Amino acid sequence: MTTTTTPTRALMEGSEALVRAAILADCRFFAGYPMTPFTEVLEHFAALLPDAGGVCINAESEIEAVGMAWGAVATGARAATGSTGQGLALMQESFSEATLAELPLVIFNMSRSQGDYFQATRGGGHGDYRHIVLAPQDVREGVALVQLAFHLADKWRNPVMIYGDYLLAHTQEAVSVERVEFPPLPEKEWAVDGSRSGTGRSRSVTPLGVTKVGQRHFGQEGKAQYIATKMAHVEREARAESGFCDDAETVVVAFGSPAKFVKYAVAQLRDEGLRVGWVRPITLWPFPVDAVRAATRTARIVGSFEISSGQLVDDVRIAVAGVAPVEFIGGVSSDHSGFGLGRLLDVDEVRERIRALHEGRPQPPVPGYEEFTYEPAPHQLAPTPEVTP
Amino acid sequence: MSTIPLGPVLDTAHAPGDGARVVEPKTPALLLTNHHHLCPGCGEPLAIRAIAEAIEDLGLVDTAVCALGIGCYTSFGSTVDIDLVQCLHGRAPSVATGVKRMLPDATVFTLQGDGDMVNEGLQEVLHTAARGESLTAVLVNNGVFGETGGHMTATSVLGQRTKNTIEGRDAEYHGYPILIGDLIAQLEGAAYVARGSVHNAGAVARTTKMVRRAFETQRRREGFSFVEILTMCPTGWFIPTGEGPDYLASTLGEVHIMGELKADGQIRTTEELHAENVRKAAELEAQLARGGLED
Amino acid sequence: MTTVVKSRGTVTIDVESCKGCELCIPACPPAVLTMSAPVNKRGYHYPELHPGCTGCAACLMVCPDYCFEVFRFQTPVEHEVPS
């Protein structure tokens, strides 16, 4: 590789492409803690940020990683942190409060499954808050969405997450990391750098409702109200794409890497003459309700394909709003390391699940896991008495 | 003790006219108001004054950025005229690290209580010190979680009565206190480590000097600087307000020893610190009796 | 019998900010501060100054509510005080 800013088409792993995209978007600070399959994102930031005039710190835990990124972002710099779902679980208090503090923090989730969907979209932290969540389907889209993430974070002064996975992080693709141009944004008047200390106009970057004399006063309730009512406006950033939906009887919803498998399987089924279609949320939050509603307009059955025990399916049900039944056709699936996306992520598997959905047959079991189906014990089947007086 | 007979009450509502000069201004310039809601007899405002005066004296005002923790002192965030990043409980050192790495010429400091720094955030401050981040961490240590009502922290001393050590902290059940200043002094990345106190005017004067030296350490980019300031919390200690200073000196002060624990590459022993404390206390008391502290 | 007491300094006291903690009383080396009989608007007794202040500023240094401003006279002021 030559410089970090010259567009160049080369074979590189997804993690590197995402990092180069972040640096192109002027990210100058990253802090993280190694955890599979996110670790390489940290490695590439460590390798590439210093030459770009930035700083990468290997933090002592995920909690400090998000803290350091918080501090960097507060100075007006573009900064990010990341992990996989387990590590992001440690960062949740900071995620909630960063939203209240209106920090434009970018967060990378290189997830081990699609089971972090709730964590990402419902918020694993406390209180009412939303993060914009972008789910690239492949490295090429990841390069664009990473840059979009930094733009949206600054546009809305809200954290934005890139929801990736093992495939995205570790697949090697030939990709040209090119800068995407965005419209200009206002200067970061809210950022702190010490220069206003002692002038009577010093600033606070704070999640609390209490600010300084001369800054807008919220109070705790006012701040919560302010942020809660902001979220409705951010919903205009919803994005999705769909295919073969104009006359589809069966529509499958999927996001991220698995969506590419669904697209391919749907194309195969169309070649057989089956009227199936797909819709892919690109933003998991704001969930593209209108796009999903439009794509499932003609459907008599809708399926949600995801590598989890069923999380995306809830939002699909909400969007479809009873127009057609919604069924979960995915499953928990991983390789035996627990880090990857497993044997369910296979075009033949995906195609047969869609076919079963289309033909009204029960879903095939998730390959290899039949013996692990939970069997309740007698005491669990026995009724629990009512206790409410 | 003084032998002056007590004369009539004098006018203290009006400043004296010509013929007098101000020795000490009422409120530091960096405080937008002297009003706060902290308890009568709280030591934290005295620590705030020491920090404000050090920043002002060193001419660092327009570079100062504070990463503020969560405790009673948090309320100063809105009245202190310093660019501020409000942090979560225990998280100021990591935030300060991010700030300083992006603003290497700023004077970045944390202000945290013992519950914040030594309980919730112990990992953060130790790693920040070990990395030798060129920032200053300031600890206001009153040996309790004051804001939540007076519970034991990692710095509460054996025998100390708190809400969850009503019979006094017991080593077997509650474990031993962490002497955070001493712990940090062992780390190579820590260049200046000091422990002050605000239980009397002499201690306040020494503490202000320590805070100044800590900021000087930062400006010279010598590594991590740390000032622990023992403060009174009569409310959290369940004692009458007036007993605060003596309680501080005789409980926390006997375990968390005042002094410059590490400076110029030297770590001082407890014996050295004790001897210096006795000497300095007498010296400062004599200076005050003569009419003022010599700088 | 009277004694001449010299005040080398004096203070102003922000009575309404005082929370009655009384830390200034023992801090004053010449012991020329006493707590008032009346209370301020918040119900706290507050310090009052008597002749003999040296302008050492110990009271200011220990006051958590920033009530004191401290002055020094060019020429000490003399008071006649009953002994």
- What is the strand content of chain C? 35-45%
Radius of gyration over C-alpha positions of chain A, nearest whole angstrom: 22 Å
The end-to-end distance of chain C, rounded to whole angstroms, is: 6 Å
How many DSSP H or I helices of chain A? 14
CATH architectural grouping of chain C: 2-Layer Sandwich
Q: If classified by CATH, what would the architecture of the largest domain in chain A be?
A: 3-Layer(aba) Sandwich
Large-scale geometry of chain C: globular
Largest beta-sheet details of chain A: 7 strands, mixed
Strand ordering within the main sheet of chain A = 3-2-4-5-7-6-13
The overall strand count of chain A is 15
Model regions low in confidence, pLDDT < 50 over at least 5 residues of chain C: none
What count of domains describes the coordinates of chain C? 1
Q: Largest interface, by Cβ-Cβ below 8 angstroms: which chains and how many residues each?
A: B-C, 53 and 55 residues
Head-to-tail CA distance between termini of chain A:
71 Å
Q: Give the rounded overall mean pLDDT of chain C.
A: 96
Structure description:
The complex is a heterotrimer of chains A (389), B (295) and C (83). Chain A has 389 residues and is of the alpha/beta class. In chain A, 37% of the residues lie in helices and 17% in strands. Chain A folds into two domains: 9-176, Thiamin diphosphate (ThDP)-binding fold, Pyr/PP domains (Rossmann fold, 3-Layer(aba) Sandwich), CATH 3.40.50.970; 239-367, Rossmann fold (3-Layer(aba) Sandwich), CATH 3.40.50. The N and C termini of chain A lie far apart (71 Å). The relative contact order of chain A is 0.11. Chain B is built from eleven helices and eleven strands. The mean pLDDT of chain B is 96. Chain B has helices at 44-57, 92-102, 114-120, 122-130, 171-174, 180-185, 201-219, 234-237, 244-250, 252-255, 270-290; strands at residues 20-24, 64-68, 83-86, 107-113, 136-141, 144-145, 151-152, 190-197, 224-230, 259-263, 266-267. In chain B, β10 and β11 (266-267) form a beta hairpin. Chain C has a single domain (2-78), classed as Alpha-Beta Plaits, CATH 3.30.70. Helices cover 11% and strands 40% of the residues of chain C. In chain C, the strands form two sheets. A two-stranded antiparallel sheet of chain C has the order 1-4. Chain C has a two-stranded antiparallel ribbon with strand order 2-3. At the B-C interface, β1, α1, α7 and α11 of B face β1, α1, α2 and β4 of C.
